[in-house]
Design a protein that fits this description.
The complex is a heterotrimer. A two-stranded antiparallel sheet of chain A has the order 1-2. The longest helix of chain A has about 35 residues. Chain A is about 65% helix and about 0% strand. By secondary structure, chain B is mostly helical. Chain B is globular. By secondary structure, chain C is of the alpha/beta class. Chain C folds into two domains: about 230 residues, D-Maltodextrin-Binding Protein, domain 2, CATH 3.40.190; about 190 residues, D-Maltodextrin-Binding Protein, domain 2 (3-Layer(aba) Sandwich). The chains are: A mainly alpha, B mainly alpha, C alpha/beta. At the A-B interface, helix 1, helix 3, helix 4, helix 5 and helix 6 of A face helix 1, helix 3, helix 4, helix 5 and helix 6 of B.
């Protein structure tokens, strides 16, 4: 059944392999994929591969307080990998990532569910969705500064709580703490969870709800066994985005924790401030390896690529 | 989700309340920004309010106490638009390409992941260094553009992957059977179907570029984009002028959204000749 | 805002009254003034207008020394374009090192100059061509003041100042013909505090780590600077005596960081601040009552009507206390040549001609050439900011807000008093990498 206004593609949990591809690829000439990815390849080669080659090269160099000396030494990697600090920083950031992922997932999923299934008018849905993105057009830096008047000892929240008598002393932990770091992360990154999940959800065939209800499933069961599996790729994407953003962050932790925490990239930043490029480069390479592993793990659970190129 | 009687289930209200809370959470800092931007000349960045005036909005235009915010905006916005267009084009093309398995596809995919994952500040330094070695001048429209694309393209591409993953190629086949050429198929069949995805990618592209800091810091050349300018200002006395900027940006965005949605509503009304279709179901 | 307009007009009129503007000269079709010896004219041209009007000098650095207003005024006075780009200190030095072609006039701190010279990205500044060289405070050019030698802990500007030849990459001791950078803005940093809450005048660094202010104090989060503040505090408290606070040994670093970690665990610090702005807001919002601060931050807090004093921490006979000094200056990138180099020298000389000095003074910064800056300030202002005299009238900040009433004395007294009491200068240590690592351990403790 087609729905008026819906683009109408069907999403079934597992497409029956009823047709083997014997005809030529639908896209036409076999060279077409290569042409289509050419711009992507160009950008990546010039702006990612080449600069990173530099970074990797520099990570093997030697630094003598004034100049970087080309060399091939593992001293930087040894320094980074044997420092207790490195493990502390990674544990801290992984902990933050996990917390942020958890909260952004719950909030993002719920918001997306509301927008997709409960808002009747698609125009209003888009409108509400855009309302969620408007704050992002005010620079991140400005919004981070504005947490102080909100969460500070004399901030709005403390004032509200004090005047209504809920507390007697201003709450210190609201700002310059792990709490404020996670709040800031959730604030900044939930949108990255909402968008992919919204995309996935909007492709779910509404009739499935009816079918599930007819089969006797409760609302909760429908959610767990129908909606969530169909949003797998959206959730996976959102997770990838959020984890990457948190692991690569340097100024949210710096500013919101009030310096009570360091992040991996902020330690890199400190190195670079005093021109310790080789050490920072080694740090960067290790960070990239670890986050790529994290992303691969997520992709192992939900293979976005396989879904894309599946035989239909 | 309607019950048989057409009323909304209780979950609607629960979820609506949750949504309202989320929006309140999102806009909490914005409200502080909004209120504090109306302070007088003695204004600080925190409460209590000091005076009431439009002083800081005027300051935004005259720029006597601040850095070059207007100049920075005049670079950030065109840059964001270019990045948005490029991201959409390249992501759609990439998404289309990845539907078929081709040689090097896996490597390319991982290159995209690496691009996403690379620490922005370090990558920016690498790009700047590369431009220096090649003797090319670094500019917001060359090196910064490229640097920002390395950030937005993974987002765009991955979203298009998810979008195309649910795309039934039977439509393309049908169009082909009806005699449509490749270009027509793209224009009249594929793009309308994936349009929501494209809009999402465009939105991401613009927002990510407009806000991009780490990768742009070392690649913007001799002029600053807006995030760089604001960040540099914080090494000096910063004033509520940045709050005024936030208020103006938000107001402007709401106006644009309002206009765009009204325009869409008008077009749809004219197209269907009656009230809007009753949405889902 | 009207006040601000008036103020600028006043400066402009000083300009017009005491100087022949460059434009007037050129309109008269006069030839270049040739050697500028004896010419006290602001921006007196020594090269033809047509030749340089297309030149654009890119001055890049931190926003408290590279100010757009200064660049605009220079462009007006000199006839060619001076564009200012602001970056934070770290991004700036990284730019200079990795993309030297994109900068013309780099803004460098003393210790950054040392590295920049070694990397060969600067060219020497010819002392002979700097008109006001002899009027530069000898603190910078000779490392001494009225016989007393300036502290050599850390990297003092004098230590990083001279090279033998234009293209040398090694810094030498003693006055020579070529300089690496021209001092521009500098200051002596100490502690800022709320006199109404702290209750007693602060003259010792140890108050910063006094348990009385537990949870209400802060230090700054730039490792190579913050560690020196910590060192000053610990030395003041009597924990240890450092051989060179600006170049610590590993044991000294360990002792300092361990003490900091202990303090952090006791909850001494409310926060460590990263940006200037944060320090202002921490104090203004009441989050902290005592913290490491920069002088203009104190001015900014005062402008918001909140009492704040910059603690005078003069050196004691026992060698404790003292300010932490720093100095930003302008360099010349090596790639400058020909007409652009000429224009650069014009600009450097314009800088010392006084307008800039008057401008930054109202932020609380000093000019290295007080003589010319004096011409652009009222006697009252000069007396207050530079000489430590009681203000004869209300003192206003650059934007017209009153920050000191008549009779108030600038914290720390005269600038000479502050600068002859510098204990150590901003620096980068030999054990820098180790220090940063331990600093980050302090942060994640």
């Amino acid at each position: 059944m087609r729905h008026a206004g819906q683009s109408g593609e069907r999403a079934s949990p597992s497409p029956p392999p009823h047709r083997v591809r014997t005809a030529p690829p639908i896209s036409g000439s076999p060279a077409r994929p290569y042409l289509l990815v050419a711009p992507l390849l160009a950008v990546l080669l010039v702006f990612v591969v080449a600069p990173l080659a530099f970074v990797v090269a520099v990570s093997f160099f030697h630094y003598d307080n004034f100049a970087i000396i080309p060399a091939f030494s593992f001293e930087n990697y040894a320094d980074v990998l044997t420092a207790h600090l490195t493990y502390e920083l990674y544990l801290t950031m992984i902990w933050f990532s996990a917390l942020t992922w958890f909260f952004t997932l719950i909030i993002g999923f719920t918001v997306a569910y509301f927008l997709v299934f409960h808002v009747r008018n698609p125009l209003i849905a888009i409108g509400l969705f855009l309302v969620c993105t408007v704050p992002f057009w005010t620079s991140n830096v400005i919004r981070m500064i504005s947490w102080l008047p909100l969460l500070g000892k004399q901030g709005l929240i403390n004032n509200a709580l004090l005047t209504t008598g809920v507390i007697r002393q201003p709450l210190q932990f609201l700002l310059f703490s792990d709490f404020s770091v996670v709040v800031s992360y959730v604030h900044l990154f939930t949108i990255f969870m909402i968008v992919p999940i919204f995309n996935s959800m909007s492709r779910i065939d509404r009739t499935l709800f009816e079918a599930a209800a007819d089969a006797g499933s409760s609302r909760w069961q429908t959610l767990l066994y129908v909606v969530v599996p169909l949003c797998k790729s959206g959730i996976a994407l959102g997770s990838i985005f959020v984890v990457t953003l948190v692991m690569g962050d340097f100024y949210v932790v710096k500013v919101m924790s009030g310096g009570s925490r360091a992040s991996i990239v902020s330690a890199m930043y400190d190195d670079i401030s005093t021109l310790l490029f080789p050490h920072a480069a080694a740090n960067a390479v290790i960070l990239m390896i670890i986050v790529v592993i994290m992303v691969s793990l997520i992709l192992r659970v939900v293979d976005v690529r396989k879904e894309l190129a599946s035989q239909r | 989700m309607l019950t048989a009687a057409g009323r909304r289930p209780w979950t609607f209200y629960a979820l609506a309340a949750f949504f309202a809370l989320y929006v309140a959470f999102l806009y909490g800092p914005m409200i502080c920004i909004f209120v504090l931007s109306f302070q007088g000349p003695q204004g600080a960045l925190v409460f209590p309010m000091r005076g009431m005036s439009l002083h800081w909005f005027a300051e935004l235009v005259t720029q006597t106490e601040t850095g070059d915010i207007l100049g920075a905006i005049s670079r950030s916005i065109p840059l964001a638009i270019i990045v948005m267009a490029a991201t959409v084009a390249v992501s759609v093309a990439g998404g289309l390409a990845f539907r078929d398995r081709f040689r090097g596809g896996a490597a390319l995919f991982y290159a995209v992941i690496v691009s996403l994952v690379a620490p922005g500040y370090v990558l920016g330094i690498g790009i700047g260094l590369m431009f220096q070695l090649l003797g090319l001048p670094a500019n917001w429209y060359s090196s910064a553009l490229g640097a920002q694309l390395t950030w937005t393209l993974p987002f765009g591409l991955l979203i298009m992957f998810a979008v195309f993953g649910r795309f039934n190629r039977a439509y393309e086949e049908a169009a082909r059977d009806l005699g449509a050429g490749a270009g027509q198929i793209l224009r009249l069949v594929v793009i309308p179907i994936v349009l929501p995805g494209i809009i999402a990618v465009a939105l991401f592209g613009f927002t990510l570029s407009y806000d991009e800091f780490a990768r742009t810091l070392q690649t913007s050349g001799s002029t600053n984009t807006l995030p760089l300018e604001i960040w540099s200002m914080t090494t000096n006395v910063t004033s509520p002028v940045i709050y005024a900027l936030g208020t103006v940006t938000t107001a402007f965005s709401f106006i644009v959204i309002g206009v765009a949605l009204s325009a869409i509503a008008l077009i749809q009304r004219r197209r269907y000749g009656r009230a809007l279709p009753a949405g889902r179901h | 805002m009207a006040q601000r307009r008036k103020k600028r007009a006043r400066i402009g009129s000083v300009d017009a009254n005491t100087a022949i503007s460059r434009r007037n000269l050129l309109r008269a079709g006069a030839a270049a003034l040739g050697a500028a010896a004896g010419s006290q004219v602001i921006g007196a041209p020594t090269i033809w207008a047509q030749e340089i009007k297309d030149i654009e000098l890119r001055h890049v650095g931190v926003s408290y020394s590279v100010v757009k207003a200064i660049g605009d005024q220079a462009s007006k006075d000199l006839g060619f374009k001076v564009t200012m780009q602001n970056l934070d200190t770290s991004a700036a030095i990284t730019r200079f090192i990795t993309q030297p072609q994109t900068v013309d006039i780099p803004d460098l701190e003393g210790w950054q100059t040392k590295v920049a010279v070694a990397r060969g990205i600067l060219q020497g500044i010819e002392v002979k061509r700097i008109k006001e060289f002899d009027n530069i405070l000898p603190i910078f050019t000779k490392g001494e003041y009225e016989g007393k030698k300036v502290s050599r802990q850390g990297i003092s500007p004098y230590e990083a100042m001279y090279i033998e030849k234009k293209d040398s990459t090694k810094i030498v001791e003693g006055v020579h013909d070529w300089m690496t950078f021209l001092p521009q803005v500098y200051n002596a940093d100490s502690i800022g505090y709320r006199p109404d809450i702290v209750g007693h005048p602060v003259t010792h660094w140890k108050d910063l780590i006094d348990p009385k202010y537990k949870g209400r104090s802060a230090i700054l989060d730039v490792p190579n600077i913050g560690i020196m503040d910590a060192a000053l505090a610990l030395e003041s408290r009597g924990d240890l005596v450092y051989k060179n606070k600006g170049n610590m040994t590993r044991q000294e670093i360990d002792t300092t960081i361990n003490a900091l970690i202990a303090l952090k665990k006791q909850g001494q610090f409310r926060a460590t601040w990263t940006t200037f702005e944060q320090s202002v807001e921490l104090m203004a919002s009441g989050e902290v009552v005592i913290q490491s601060m920069w002088s203009p931050a104190v001015t900014a807090v005062l402008a918001k009507g909140i009492p704040c004093i910059y603690a005078p921490v003069n050196e004691q006979p026992n060698g404790k206390e003292g300010y932490r000094g720093w100095c930003n200056g302008m360099g010349l990138m090596r790639h400058l040549s020909g007409k652009k180099l000429e224009a650069a020298y014009e600009y450097l000389n314009w800088y010392y001609a006084g307008w800039q000095g008057g401008f930054v003074a109202r932020h609380g910064y000093y000019s290295p050439v007080p003589k010319t800056a004096e011409k652009f300030m009222t006697a009252n202002e000069y007396g207050y900011w530079y000489l430590g005299k009681p203000a004869a009238d209300v003192i206003k900040d650059p934007y017209g807000a009153a920050i000191a009433k008549a009779g108030a004395v600038r914290d720390g007294g005269s600038f000479i008093e502050r600068f002859t009491n510098i204990a150590c200068w901003n620096t980068v240590m030999d054990e820098n990498q180790y220090m940063i690592q331990r600093w980050n351990e302090f942060k994640s403790a």
